[in-house]
């Protein structure tokens, strides 16, 4: 992408559209990323199924001011990927990252930026017909793994994973996944669950993480780019 889409500062949280009302938008946006690898045995890693989002009561770091994300780094997956802003398409769905480059991730600009108070959302493809994509290994992340988001203001927001879950698309708990926890949190989303030829993946993998090091913390940056494990 040649540049970032124009962004406006979001309304105060109490005036924003409730995440619960965006359930269909969220499902449709992730639905667009079910590209699938029908000939790949085993498929991407799968976390345990869940019917509700977990609670995490550990203290979080102090929130950061708003600044758009430029890159996401996940050392455990050897992922270092650019982030582009995504809005809603003509059908009211979250725009998926470009299918021409499945190494790119998308930040939903209707949500907080990573490090702000509230829940920031990054989405990415799981695979394509040519091989694994940027979030192929997402389901294999473990509790305590770090996710570093590099922001336009030069700060690095470091998050710690506290849960990884798979949710069925037709029972996706949008309010629990996207709703504000009152502290800086991050969600990483991709497709997952059982793959069906013709209809794609049956669910979504969701990573839950909380901010632990605003503007500090420097996890080792992987040298590899996203791809096959």
Automatic annotation (TrEMBL):
Keyword entries, A-Z: Hydrolase
Region (Disordered): 35-64
Annotated signal peptide: none
InterPro entries cross-referenced by the UniProt entry: Sortase (IPR005754), Sortase_dom-sf (IPR023365), Sortase_F (IPR042001)
Pfam family, one: Sortase
One annotated GO molecular function: hydrolase activity
Listed Low complexity bias regions: 49-64
NCBIfam families in alphabetical order: class_F_sortase
Protein name: Class F sortase
């Amino acid at each position: 992408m040649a540049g970032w889409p124009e962004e406006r500062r979001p309304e105060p949280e109490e005036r924003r559209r409730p995440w619960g009302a965006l359930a269909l938008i969220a499902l449709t946006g992730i639905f667009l990323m079910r590209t699938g690898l029908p000939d790949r045995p085993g498929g991407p890693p799968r976390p345990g199924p869940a019917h509700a989002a977990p609670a995490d009561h550990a203290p979080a770091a102090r929130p950061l001011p708003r600044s758009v994300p430029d890159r996401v780094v996940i050392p455990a997956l050897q992922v270092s990927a650019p982030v582009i802003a995504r809005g809603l398409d003509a059908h009211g769905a979250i725009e998926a990252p470009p299918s021409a480059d499945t190494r790119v991730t998308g930040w939903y600009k209707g949500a907080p930026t990573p490090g702000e108070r509230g829940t920031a959302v990054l989405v990415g493809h799981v695979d394509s017909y040519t091989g694994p994509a940027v979030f192929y290994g997402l389901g294999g992340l473990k509790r305590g793994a770090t996710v570093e988001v590099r922001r336009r203001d030069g700060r690095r927001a470091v998050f710690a994973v506290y849960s990884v879950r798979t949710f069925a698309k037709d029972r996706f708990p949008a309010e629990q996944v996207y709703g504000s926890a009152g502290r800086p949190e991050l969600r990483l989303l991709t497709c997952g669950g059982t793959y069906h030829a013709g209809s794609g993946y049956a669910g979504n993998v969701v990573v839950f993480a909380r901010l632990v090091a605003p503007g500090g913390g420097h996890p080792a940056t992987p040298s590899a780019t996203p791809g096959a494990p």
